[in-house]
Design goal:
With about 425 residues, the chain is of the alpha+beta class. The chain has seven helices and 14 strands. The strands form three sheets. Strands 1, 2, 3, 4, 10, 11 and 14 form a seven-stranded mixed β-sheet that branches.
């Protein structure tokens, strides 16, 4: 008996669930510098009494990322690495952030109680305990229905001459999956501004992160996220060291002025999913830019991946879905799956050429929330837990396709 048309979608979803559940999961991962929300009235919380309270706009931007179609898939965020959180601490310990609490509470109002949580370990900053010193620490929000945090740790110690804000490493596990479903996510916010002293501090931080990742071994699936503040573009040693092949001598080890012997790169080399060459204020690279939302001039925000996390990798486990990595609000994939830009150098993403178009999919409300909530644009991408057969790629592509289709069936409600 033929299946009635209104019920075909349900049959497909049921078949996919039965076939695919043991094999993989699909995850939407984003990184976002939220520009240090400020407690203007010093009451220890972020609320409407604060004159530039922007958490609702940040949450709206997160919702917009959930509703965005990437390679035909739209779903709520599963992992969100955040930089420039509001520092709610008045002493060095415990380190807390009202930004995390406010965002999680808002998301759970939208998606259901207990859906989202934040990791309690928050990064340190130079001068921790004096509010907003170092522009706020790094932290993580995650979807408890799809991801578990197995461990979290800080890398190094902030100082006035080295790391400005503690990079974080999270050991994450995709839930409702089998096989190689554990992966690592780094979250960093490197020293800002140009000049030798600042680029040296970025080198130091990049090499500390690289050394930590190299110790995980060659089989680890790793995403390096965050605001790298590469004022010098891809020519900076910090970026080059993250991408350096094993055996390469890195630029700095320890405080750049300490004279310590340099590190040698190990197996956890980063790869850039978009391009390994870019500069600032150059229209050729505009589609990669994430800074600033009102004057696009630079590529500061990243998701760098180890080789086995790239699309089409032979290793089972977390893999980027091709044609999904975007600077949200700026770049987008067109009908030919070519990354395109929606603005001009030094222009704002919130302009009439960018919204309400079939090509971009961005709306005026989306872009208004982005420009109001932060000077940075988030970088978002979709991943799957792939289980390829040895020596074949057919199953891997089938897994990625089924994962996307399955998450359409399982997607949480949108507001």
């Amino acid at each position: 008996m033929p299946v009635l048309k209104p019920f075909r979608g349900l049959v497909v979803c049921a078949a996919l669930a039965a076939l695919a559940s043991p094999l993989f999961g699909a995850l939407r991962i984003a990184t976002y510098n939220v520009a240090a929300d400020t407690d203007r009235n010093n009451d220890g919380t972020l609320n409407v009494a604060d004159s530039d309270f922007v958490v609702p706009k940040t949450v709206a931007a997160i919702q917009a990322m959930a509703g965005r179609s990437l390679a035909g898939n739209a779903q709520p965020l599963d992992v969100l690495s955040l930089q420039e959180l509001y520092d709610s601490s008045t002493t060095t310990t415990p380190i807390t952030s009202a930004t995390l609490t406010s965002i999680v509470n808002s998301l759970n109002t939208i998606y259901g109680a207990g859906t989202y949580a934040y990791d309690p370990l928050v990064g340190d900053t130079t001068g921790q305990g004096t509010l907003l010193t170092g522009n706020g620490p790094n932290g993580l929000i995650y979807n408890t229905k799809t991801v578990a945090v197995l461990a979290s740790s800080r890398i190094g110690t902030p100082s006035g001459s080295g790391i400005a804000r503690t990079p974080m490493r999270y050991t994450l596990q995709a839930l409702n999956t089998t096989g190689a479903n554990t992966f690592y996510l780094y979250n960093q916010h490197a020293k800002a501004s140009s000049g030798t002293a600042n680029t040296d501090r970025r080198n130091y931080e990049a090499d500390a992160v690289r050394a930590d990742a190299d110790a995980l071994g060659s089989t680890a699936h790793i995403i390096f996220t965050g605001d790298l503040n590469l004022t010098g573009g891809s020519a900076e040693a910090a970026y080059q060291d993250m991408l350096a092949a094993p055996g390469t001598t890195l630029a700095t080890n320890g405080n750049p002025s300490s004279g310590a012997a340099n590190l040698v790169a190990g197996p956890s080399r980063g790869f850039d999913p978009l391009a390994s060459t870019f500069t600032t204020s150059n229209s050729a690279y505009l589609k990669y830019y994430s800074e600033s939302s009102t004057s696009l001039t630079a590529r500061f925000d990243f998701q760098l991946l180890t080789a086995n996390t790239l699309p089409g990798a032979a290793a089972a486990g977390l893999q980027l879905v091709a044609n999904t990595y975007t600077a949200f609000g700026n770049s987008y994939y067109n009908a030919s799956n070519i990354l395109s830009s929606v603005n001009s150098v030094s222009g704002s993403v919130n302009n009439a050429t960018n919204y309400n178009t079939a090509a971009t999919g961005y709306t005026q409300a989306m872009l208004a929330n982005l420009t109001a909530s932060s000077d940075h644009l988030p970088v978002v991408a979709d991943y799957v837990i792939a289980v390829p057969e040895p020596g074949t790629t057919t199953l891997m592509f089938a897994v990625a396709w089924f994962a996307v289709r399955r998450r359409r069936c399982l997607a949480l409600p949108q507001s």
